[in-house]
């Protein structure tokens, strides 16, 4: 087939992909021939696109209906069945068998349901074994059989149909040294059979059959590992080798073996070119994705289940036991190779062997699957704080930003981002928490401003968990302190402030603290946030906000009190906020006492529990309390002096300030005592007014 004419014909087929009936038999045969191994890779890649479009078009035109036997899978199966069987049953022509098997593998790639249907037809497996018997010395037939069986082995319904003689044949071919491509293809087929058998056994009533697969997996892993080290000059076989290792590396023993072989890791990572862009061919993308999966498996921590998730898992175990499973309802013992310390060690070994260079190259590849894999890998790596500096030095923040922006740029700002992006955003949040935003994003505000929308999704997304919300709050808090532009952008993010204010009332101490700290930084950095909490003329709206800040200023958690009282000290520089605090004092006679307790921990409120221990004083709280009183008592704010004098006397503020200046509450620097003296002066003036 002439390459130029072939591409032109494939382009014509592409135009009518949605209508199965529009394809003539000769055109379908032409598509099959385009998958011949002798065809150049660009033509085969285009043939994959045509085949994929054909299957998708057929499925969109024939949606599955309840009770209907005429499903898209049946339609496609009937079309492909003739095209495949007519070739693999042609025992007179070796080339026809090779093309048929190659097309069969392609169908498994694109539409495994219809391919599985064809595989299950009477005589299909026998045709495959007959081809091996008729052409025992044909490397091309053997290679395509191994590849097709490898594809079929990934699906449970097909695994049950693969005879033992095929498995034995695959074992023999995986050990031969004559043809590296055949050896790799046979090995990946065995890997899929082994992993599939273990999965099938774990889903069934008898899990004991899963145990022997570990030794088989270790043998196969050792074989494939040796091929990576020794067959580096055979790129066509390495795709299969890497795919096989990606499957096997979910096993803890295999992970341990791979991670503790630096020669293997270095050779694996060298397969990805560092100094030039990765060619965007299908085989290169597959190779890169396979390497990323291996890194992901090596670095993955075991899931941290919430109480609800743990309860659901327990119920599932109980259900299995009730259905006759040999497993008990007790929790399965944790494999020591999966504990956090071992995973941290594997992450460090991967980094030492050059994994960050691979991640940096991968971030520039236009592939959704690769981007999502990157997010998970980076999240696992930065879980260890000791790795975060290395990730920043290796351009990890840029890579994560590139992944996030490229995946979310097409999404309107009002639309939630894809749930699959949350790991990448969480990884970026961890870097932003432990390092200066300048180190993470660079000296200009542009990258920081771009990061605010995705980071806010850690709070707003319906799928985010408490840890993601906490880390999103902490990251935004760091950014809010960086510049007024960042603080304003955070304030203006739709729905974000309402969510943060709700989280201030969360039962979880760390969430409540982080939300309060973010509000404190926003009030200090954004004029709009300042107005929301005290700078606007609407005293009634301000009261509800300040009531929350006052309540947070009286919590047991010291960092929460520091953040809330800091925000309070800032906003009370506005007369509206002072009026609102005074109104709250008149309503419940608590506001001044709460501020006084910031200065003197011995101050009590009516509803205090007598058994509660007295909190120790804190210089930061004292300073904030004094500043609040300095603002509230400032004569220029024109609060009603007589009522103010009465409330000040009820709260015992004169005694509190006198104790502070006498040194009874501890030593303080001049900045505090100077303000305290000014406050005491105003208090004495108010007392004189009350007594006059």
Automatic annotation (TrEMBL):
Family matches, as Pfam families: UNC45-central
Domain UNC-45/Cro1/She4 central: 28-193
InterPro entries noted in UniProt: ARM-like, ARM-type_fold, UCS_central_dom
Top-rank taxon: Eukaryota
A GO MF label: Hsp90 protein binding
Keyword field: Cytoplasm
Assigned GO CC terms: cytoplasm
Localization, UniProt: Cytoplasm
Protein name in the entry: ARM repeat-containing protein
């Amino acid at each position: 087939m002439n390459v130029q004419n072939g591409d032109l014909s494939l382009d014509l087929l592409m135009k009518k992909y949605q209508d199965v009936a529009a394809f003539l038999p000769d055109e379908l045969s032409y598509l099959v021939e385009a998958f011949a191994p002798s065809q150049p890779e660009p033509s085969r890649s285009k043939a994959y696109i045509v085949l994929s479009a054909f299957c998708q078009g057929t499925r969109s035109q024939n949606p599955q209906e309840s009770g209907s036997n005429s499903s898209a899978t049946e339609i496609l199966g009937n079309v492909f069945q003739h095209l495949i069987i007519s070739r693999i049953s042609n025992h007179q022509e070796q080339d026809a068998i090779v093309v048929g098997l190659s097309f069969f593998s392609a169908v498994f790639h694109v539409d495994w349901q219809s391919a599985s249907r064809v595989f299950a037809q009477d005589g299909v497996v026998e045709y495959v074994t007959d081809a091996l018997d008729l052409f025992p010395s044909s490397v091309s037939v053997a290679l395509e059989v191994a590849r097709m069986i490898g594809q079929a082995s990934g699906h449970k319904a097909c695994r049950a149909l693969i005879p033992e003689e095929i498995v034995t044949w695959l074992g023999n071919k995986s050990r031969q040294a004559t043809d590296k491509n055949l050896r790799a293809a046979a090995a990946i087929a065995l890997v899929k059979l082994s992993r599939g058998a273990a999965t099938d056994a774990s889903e069934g009533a008898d899990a004991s059959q899963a145990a022997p697969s570990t030794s088989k997996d270790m043998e196969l892993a050792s074989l494939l590992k040796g091929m990576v080290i020794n067959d580096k000059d055979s790129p066509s076989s390495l795709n299969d080798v890497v795919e096989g290792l990606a499957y096997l590396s979910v096993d803890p023993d295999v992970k341990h073996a791979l991670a503790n072989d630096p020669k293997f890791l270095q050779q694996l990572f060298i397969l990805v070119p560092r100094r030039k862009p990765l060619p965007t061919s299908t085989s290169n993308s597959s190779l890169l994705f396979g390497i990323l999966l291996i890194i992901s498996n090596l670095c993955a921590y075991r899931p941290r289940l919430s109480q609800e998730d743990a309860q659901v898992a327990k119920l599932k175990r109980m259900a299995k036991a009730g259905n006759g499973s040999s497993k008990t309802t007790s929790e399965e013992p944790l494999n020591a190779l999966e504990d956090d310390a071992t995973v941290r060690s594997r992450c460090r070994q991967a980094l030492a062997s050059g994994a960050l260079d691979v991640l940096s190259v991968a971030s520039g590849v236009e592939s959704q699957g690769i981007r999502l894999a990157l997010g998970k890998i980076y999240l696992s790596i930065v879980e260890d704080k000791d790795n975060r500096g290395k990730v920043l030095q290796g351009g990890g923040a840029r890579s994560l930003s590139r992944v996030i922006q490229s995946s979310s740029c097409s999404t309107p700002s009002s639309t939630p981002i894809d749930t699959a992006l949350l790991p990448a955003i969480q990884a970026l949040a961890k870097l932003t928490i432990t390092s200066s935003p300048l180190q993470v994003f660079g000296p200009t505000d542009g990258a920081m401003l771009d990061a605010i929308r995705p980071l806010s999704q850690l709070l707003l997304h319906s799928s985010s968990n408490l840890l993601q919300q906490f880390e999103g709050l902490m990251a935004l808090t760091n950014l809010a302190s960086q510049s007024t532009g960042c603080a304003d952008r955070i304030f203006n993010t739709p729905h974000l402030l309402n969510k943060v204010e709700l989280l201030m009332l969360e039962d979880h101490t760390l969430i409540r603290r982080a939300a309060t700290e973010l509000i404190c930084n926003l009030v200090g950095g954004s004029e709009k946030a300042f107005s929301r909490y005290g700078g606007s003329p609407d005293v009634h709206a301000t009261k509800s906000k300040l009531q929350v800040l006052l309540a947070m200023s009286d919590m047991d958690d010291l960092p929460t009190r520091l953040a809330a009282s800091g925000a309070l000290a800032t906003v009370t520089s506005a007369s509206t906020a002072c009026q609102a605090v005074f109104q709250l004092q008149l309503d419940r006679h608590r506001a001044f006492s709460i501020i006084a307790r910031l200065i003197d921990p011995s101050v009590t409120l009516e509803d205090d529990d007598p058994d509660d221990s007295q909190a120790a004083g804190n210089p930061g709280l004292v300073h904030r309390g004094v500043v609040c009183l300095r603002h509230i008592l400032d004569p220029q704010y024109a609060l009603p002096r007589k009522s103010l004098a009465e409330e000040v006397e009820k709260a015992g503020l004169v005694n509190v300030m006198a104790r502070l200046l006498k040194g009874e509450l501890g030593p303080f620097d001049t900045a505090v005592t100077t303000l305290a003296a000014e406050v005491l002066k105003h208090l004495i003036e108010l007392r004189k007014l009350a007594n006059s």
